[in-house]
């Protein structure tokens, strides 16, 4: 479906176009998520920890495609609010991140805001266009990760 034909010549800079779209979509979600006192990145991080925790920071960073120093910076405010606990792991060098009860409540509040944001975006762009965008993005991510067969069913 998304194979390149020899006659198709992309115009413009893909990076610029993606960054423009990303900024617009981020502003859209920010408008909803901010009502909960969270930033988009904090909501995403909290959601991962609620779903997967307790989890080692290195594993969380890998799953979120985030470098370790960025993850550490993003964990700190969530821990300071009491939404996450960063405790000892299996040995003295390891740590585990886990959501507190207050963190689970905050994540659920963020999820309700996220659902409103997603519904509004689906209405604005059209559900079919959003689904096609998701499919295209998933396929591009798989190709860039070196695993195109995982997305194309080959």
From TrEMBL:
InterPro entries assigned: HTH_MarR-typ (IPR000835), MarR/SlyA-like (IPR039422), WH-like_DNA-bd_sf (IPR036388), WH_DNA-bd_sf (IPR036390)
UniProt keyword Iron, yes or no: no
Listed GO MF terms: DNA binding; DNA-binding transcription factor activity
Domain of life: Bacteria
SMART domains assigned to the protein according to its UniProt record, in alphabetical order: HTH_MARR
GO biological process, any: response to stress
Pfam entry (one): MarR_2
Swiss-Prot/TrEMBL keywords: DNA-binding
Residue ranges crossing the lipid bilayer per the database entry: none
Domain HTH marR-type: 11-142
Name recorded for this polypeptide: DNA-binding MarR family transcriptional regulator
């Amino acid at each position: 479906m998304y194979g390149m034909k020899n006659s198709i010549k992309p115009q413009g800079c893909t990076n610029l176009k993606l960054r423009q779209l990303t900024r617009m979509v981020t502003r859209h979600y920010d408008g909803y998520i901010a009502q909960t006192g969270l930033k988009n990145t904090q909501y995403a991080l909290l959601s991962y920890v609620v779903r997967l925790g307790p989890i080692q920071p290195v594993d969380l960073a890998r799953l979120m495609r985030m470098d370790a120093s960025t993850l550490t910076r993003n964990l700190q405010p969530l821990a300071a609010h009491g939404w996450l606990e960063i405790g000892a792991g299996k040995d003295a060098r390891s740590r585990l991140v886990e959501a507190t009860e207050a963190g689970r409540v905050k994540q659920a509040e963020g999820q309700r805001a996220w659902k409103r944001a997603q519904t509004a975006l689906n209405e604005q762009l059209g559900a079919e266009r959003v689904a096609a965008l998701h499919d295209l993005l998933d396929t591009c991510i798989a190709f860039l990760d070196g695993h195109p067969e995982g997305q194309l069913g080959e």
